[in-house]
Amino acid sequence: MKRFFLFLLFxxxxxxxxxxxxxxxxxxxxxxxxxxxxxxxxxxxVMDLTDKVQAEAALDKSxxxxxxxxxxxxxxxxxxxxxxxxxxxxLVTTSxxxxxxxxxxxLTESHTMKDIKVFSLPAxxxxxxxxxxxxxxxxxxxxxxxxxxxxxEISPSDARVLKxxxxxxxxxxxxxxTGAIGxxxxxxxxxxxxxxSIALPLRDMLTEAGxxxxxxxxxxxDVYKPYDGDNEELQARSDVGNNNHAxxxxxxxxxxxxxxxxxxxxxxxxxxxxxxxxxxxxxHDAVLNEIDIPDRGVRxxxxxxxxxxxxxxxxxxxxxxxxxxxxxxxxxxxxxEKIAKSLFDGFVAYFSKVDN
Amino acid sequence: MKKIGxxxxxxxxxxxxxGCSEKPDQARSAAQSVSxxxxxxxxxxxxxxxxxxxxxxxxxxxxxxxxxxxxAVTQMIALDQKQKYPVLPKGLTVHSVTVHxxxxxxxxxxxxxxxxxGSTSEDLLIAMxxxxxxxxxxxxxxxxxxxxxxxxxxxxxxxxxSAFPRDEKMIKK
Lengths: 356, 173
Description:
Number of strands of chain B: 7
Order of helices and strands of chain B: HHEEHEEHEEE
Low-confidence stretches of chain B: 1-24
Oligomer: heterodimer
Strand content of chain B: 15-25%
Order of helices and strands of chain A: HEEEEEEEEEEHEEEHEHEEHEHEHH
CATH topology of the largest domain in chain A: Aminopeptidase
Distance between the termini of chain B: 38 Å
Radius of gyration of chain B: 18 Å
Radius of gyration of chain A: 24 Å
Number of domains of chain B: 2
Strand order of the largest sheet of chain A: 14-11-15-18-16-17
Shape of chain B: globular
Largest sheet of chain B: 5 strands, mixed
Strand content of chain A: 25-35%
């Protein structure tokens, strides 16, 4: 998907890149709007141009500094800065550097190139529309890289097992409920963000394998409503699994304890069907297989989402946010995806056993 | 027993008001002379250092018969606070323990809301309290309250409005 978009971006540029004549283009209007009709919402910046221009877009390593260079383009009144949507960007500036016009955007959250869209719209004389360059920048929820689907390579045998399965994934906590709180380099780390960072890639892997995945949430939000009670919130999550007739339900959690040396992973189940324990065990074993983490066992418990879902379900506590080594690991790029892959393999193991 | 004690207390109070010169201290001692504090050995539960199980500990409570359960929970809190890594929040107290039809309502102070997130602390709180109180005859289940109200929001794992039975599998063998 990423490669595809880069290719598209390149194409868009190539179109723009051949000015019909050597004369410099000019920006005659610069405007923006927040589009709340998008999911996620995004800021659209539109530049009216007197001619086609050559444009280049770049994003720095942090993913927070985005730049578009319009070659051989002038804009009156430079430099200038703009306050757009503060939930997306802290500052936007335009400046003239030699013959080129620079558009710089300081983003509040890390973006990837595939999040941001840069494209040209041709002049439409009938509609009195000039040549335009459009930049769309989406709102990214804090603390994870992207809510949009990624592609993963899935083996044909795994895909055979998972095809047609309905799986509900519940990223624990969210919104006004931060879940457990850890510390990393003097900054708080919230359980709700780590659970989501594992759940999103897991969703993409399962979807890629042909399963239908229902998420209780895909952004940092309360599932029922803000500041609600535990039971209403947990019932709303159980309902997502029940209403979609899921074959299996997984709630992803990160644990905490006052003793910082305590660490490990626990698979919880409530034995309401003959398969709850098998599901908990399959996922727990796969995590232990692929992640370096102490084993706290598979344990029967009466946790709300396990009691109130109709299908086999498990709640997995995947390490302690109160353990300094574990919180560093859980927030290391690539690690949530690794944990997601282990859970994915756990689902393959579970459905292989159930189907035979 | 409780009724008689209360009756005696109110009688003593009437007397003290009527007598005018009598001090409240004397009124209280008059009531206590009827309902006598007893020394009883009870089993309370504390967390193990890996936060996987609860461990039974025998303690002596000295309280009026009707206050023994509350005193047991108070000692359970004290024992937990002596741990290097306690489960229960600082400053936690218990207002009351009352039993109806085999279910003990244990009413904690608002500090309970400060319990650490994660299912581990919630699990240990439930196991410590339920196992301590179901050690008393006639208590089969335990329900949790904060300042007299059912718990609306704690750590978001269990149904905290339900009544919890004794949990043998959480006891360290």
